[in-house]
Design brief:
binds N-(carboxycarbonyl)-S-(naphthalen-2-ylmethyl)-L-cysteine, about 35% strand, mainly beta, binds fe (iii) ion, globular, about 15% helix
Length: about 200
């Protein structure tokens, strides 16, 4: 475990190849029931380059009217699939927090997808950490301080890495600058999947 900043912990290759494949099998099951959707930005309606789905009691969605957590898939109208034990275990083993996550956002990146710098502030409380799991292609991940344009650093995230953002790191700006296409053979065709486990309520 590496502490990158106060509250920001990196567990390099927390999942070995077999664990990554087992988690991926669970995700394929989830995505059959809750297909990836393409969120759009509030107000502008401009599409995200990242496609998304969720599992757990609550899922994060974005549409023309805003960002929010909701209990159902925006297109099928069905409840999100439950969080599998494989995901709950990652939280228990790394989050250092009493209480289970109630939302797991699944972000799917093709070679050209990115996520601009932002803060995660749609959760009711900031006392719980956010845990992120990377699968598939590596990316250049940017994280910084309290402002969008303030000083920032980049690290490469590889398949199987886990990041935990708690305490003073919970409100930091962060984003995905670039996918490094073809750096992993886990997914075919090559892509990156990121899971973020949260307590939304
Ligand atoms: C730092 N996802 O879904 S994960 C997101 O790789 C998001 O898909 C990126 O940012 C991705 O909101 C980055 C790392 C991450 C997630 C949540 C955070 C970093 C964070 C919350 C607070 C601070
Ligand atoms: Fe985020």
């Amino acid at each position: 475990m590496l502490t990158l900043k106060p509250g920001l912990r990196l567990y390099k290759t927390a999942l070995d190849r077999a664990a990554q494949q087992a988690l991926l099998a669970d995700l394929r099951d989830i995505l059959r029931q809750a297909p990836l959707f393409q969120p759009v930005m509030p107000h502008s309606g401009k599409a995200f380059s990242v496609r998304m789905s969720n599992c757990g009691p609550l899922g994060w969605v974005s549409d023309i009217s805003g960002y929010r957590y909701q209990e159902t898939h925006p297109e099928t109208g069905r409840a999100w699939p439950p969080m599998p034990e494989s995901i709950l275990r990652l939280w228990r083993d790394h989050a250092d927090y009493d209480g289970a996550p109630d939302a797991c956002l699944i972000n799917f990146y093709d070679a050209l997808a990115r996520m601009g710098p932002h803060q995660d502030r749609d959760e009711i409380s900031f006392d719980a950490p956010i845990l992120s799991v990377s699968l598939g292609d590596s990316c250049r991940f940017r994280y910084g301080g309290e402002t969008r344009s303030g000083p920032s650093e980049t690290i490469r995230l590889d398949s199987g890495d886990i990041l935990v953002f708690g305490g003073p790191a919970r409100k930091m700006f962060h984003g995905v600058d670039k996918i490094l296409p073809g750096t992993s053979t886990l997914l075919s065709p090559p892509a990156r999947i990121n899971l973020t486990l949260r307590r939304a309520r």
